[in-house]
Amino acid sequence: MSKIRVLLIEDNRILREGISAMLNDQPDIRAVAASGNGDALEKAKSVKPQVVLLDLGLRSQSSLRIAETIKKRFPQAQIVVMDLIPVQAEVIEFVKAGVSGFILKDATIDDFLQTIRTVADGKKVLPPPLAESLFSHIVEFAVQTGKADRLMKAVKLTKREHEVVNLISRGMSNKEIAGELNIAVHTVKSHVHNTLEKLALQTRLELASFALTDRMVRKSRG
Fold this sequence. Notes:
The chain has 222 residues and is α/β, with parallel strands linked by helices. It has helices spanning 13-24, 40-47, 63-73, 88-96, 109-120, 128-144, 148-153, 159-169, 174-181, 185-199, 204-221; strands spanning 4-9, 29-35, 51-55, 78-83, 101-104. The chain has a 5-stranded parallel β-sheet with strand order 2-1-3-4-5, sandwiched between helices. Helix 9 crosses helix 10 (185-199). The radius of gyration is 20 Å and the shape is elongated. The N and C termini lie far apart (57 Å).
C-alpha cells in the first residue's frame, strides 16, 4: 500500500521528533522529511511530499511566506497549518495562500491523523471554531461592502429548505422539525441532505452556522 508522504516543518525539536515518530507508527503515513532550520523548500523539492505539516509559529521564518511559496512551486502538495488557535485574519490569509487544512494543537491524535488523511485525499479540513470564524468573516465582508444580496443569491435554497435550516439552528431534531412543519421525518432528512449538498457543508452544526449568517444578511438588507 502506498503511504502518504509527509514533510514536517516545525522548529521545536521535541515536537518535530515526536510528531515524526507518531506518523511513522501509522501503516499508511510516512514522515519522509522534517525541517526546522530554514531548508523546507529544498526538502520539499527533494522528497515531493503529498502533505506538508507547517507550524504557524515558526520563530525564524514566515509561515505564511513558506505556505505561499510551497503552493506556488509544488501545487500538488496539500498544506496543513498547526497552531493553538490562530486569529481570524491569519486563517483568512492562509486560506488565500492555498492551505488545505488546520490542526489545532489541542486536537486528539485521531483528529490529527484524520486531517492528514483527509487533505491527502484532496479535501479541505477546517475545525469548527475556525470554520465559524471564517464564515463570519465572509458575512462581515459581504455586509460591509454591500454584497450581501450577491452572497445569498449564490445559494439557491427553497423556502422549505430555509425553514428546515432555521429550525435546525434552534436545536430541533428531525422528528421535532417534522412535527413543526407537519411533514414526514424522511422528508426532513431529504431536505437536510439536499441542503448540505447545495451549501457544500457536512454537518448540522455547519447548517446552524449558515442559518445565523442568513439572518445576519437579511437583517443587513432591512
